[in-house]
Design a protein that fits this description.
This protein has 349 residues and is α/β, with parallel strands linked by helices. It is built from twelve helices and 15 strands. The relative contact order is 0.17.
Length: 349
């Protein structure tokens, strides 16, 4: 047994330090970033990506995400016909913000069909355990078949495997195990790593060889999204979007309040729905199944997150997203939020 006893920090353990700022308005903050790499298609986006989860990463939601400038990693079981219609309704700039998702054992046929008609800019290879060597094999296969596409691969939490995946042909490495709001991996397996320290390690490894890191998991509020982008190049968000009116999950009404069913992709509910059965004889459920109160239109949820991000820019004196990480300096803290009125009744205007 070996213990790594360096302090490992999560989003709740840090706050961003303010700095001198010449902003006159939050509207001056440029939260878009252009991503360029030799051999890849250049694209511009707000580097916040909807997670490829059932009920949120669906065509209806994706259209709103890309129109607002965000990215969307599509859920990997969407039929070709639905993807085709979605791409038909998007401009070329919008479609470049879409990532088509596949598993390590999935065929590339659907991606080839979409690519031949519309062009596929980003491919998200999705596997819970990014340490399995089969992921590296899949990255090599996808790179060979789609030499100009951006490849997202993960998830991992250490710099060594970030380097390995980038050297196999990936461009963006998803980093984070067990941090998602609907994830029970840490409880069920004891595996994981706090987000901030992990992202510092993984980003350092990626940037040394001109790769990128995507923070995946742990964001509960706009402030967490700001912290994630202060540590990485992209941030993947799932549960924060699950209460949107446009989400396709089932609605349940309790005492006059409307909720939506939302389940982690490793939950028994999702496994039964998407994979035709939960193989309980060799695995346990690693995802929560919860009811989430409907928050309102997706556009409003996105605007709330982007408003927080723009405000963060003004606090630290950063004018554009490309330099955001350089401007972010973190305090380690023992307490960061006042919770006196956390559960107090609220009122509307």
């Amino acid at each position: 047994m070996r213990i790594i006893d360096e302090v490992q920090l999560d989003f709740d353990d840090v706050l961003i330090r303010p700095a001198r700022s010449d902003f006159k308005s939050r509207s001056e903050a440029n939260i878009f970033r252009t991503f360029e790499k030799k051999g890849r298609n250049t694209f511009t986006c707000i580097p916040i990506c909807c997670a490829n989860m059932d009920s949120i990463a669906m065509p209806r939601m994706a259209k709103i995400f890309v129109e607002k400038g965000l990215m969307c990693a599509m859920e990997k079981h969407i039929p070709y016909e639905d993807l085709e219609k979605m791409y038909s309704d998007m401009s070329q700039e919008e479609s470049r913000r879409i990532a088509l998702s596949i598993g390590v054992n999935d065929s590339l046929d659907t991606i080839h069909r979409i690519d031949s008609k519309f062009g596929v800019n980003i491919i998200n290879i999705d596997v819970a355990n990014g340490y399995a060597t089969i992921l590296q094999d899949k990255v090599r296969e996808v790179r060979s078949e789609f030499p100009n596409a951006w490849i997202i691969a993960g998830t991992v939490v250490t710099g060594d495997i970030v380097t390995d995946l980038l050297n196999c042909g990936a461009d963006i490495i998803r980093c984070g195990i067990g941090g998602g709001q609907q994830c029970l991996t840490r409880r069920q397996t004891g595996v994981g790593r706090p987000m901030v320290s992990m992202l510092e390690d993984c980003s350092d490894a990626a940037h040394q060889i001109h790769g990128y890191v995507m923070s995946d998991g742990g964001c509960k509020c706009p402030g967490d999204v700001c912290k994630a982008l202060g540590c990485s190049d992209f941030v993947m968000v799932g549960s924060m979007f699950a209460g949107a009116e446009e989400a396709t999950n089932d609605v349940v009404e309790i005492n006059g309040e409307k909720y939506k069913k939302f389940a982690g992709m490793s939950s028994s509910y999702a496994q039964n729905k998407l994979f035709g059965g939960f193989k309980s004889q060799y695995r346990s459920s690693e995802g929560r199944q919860t009811l989430i109160k409907i928050k309102g239109p997706l556009s409003d949820i996105i605007d709330d997150i982007l408003g927080g991000l723009r405000s963060c820019f003004t606090y630290i004196g950063c004018h554009n997203m490309k330099h955001f990480q350089k401007h972010c300096v973190f305090y380690r803290v023992n307490h960061q939020l006042s919770t006196t009125y956390e559960n107090a009744p609220t009122f509307k205007e």
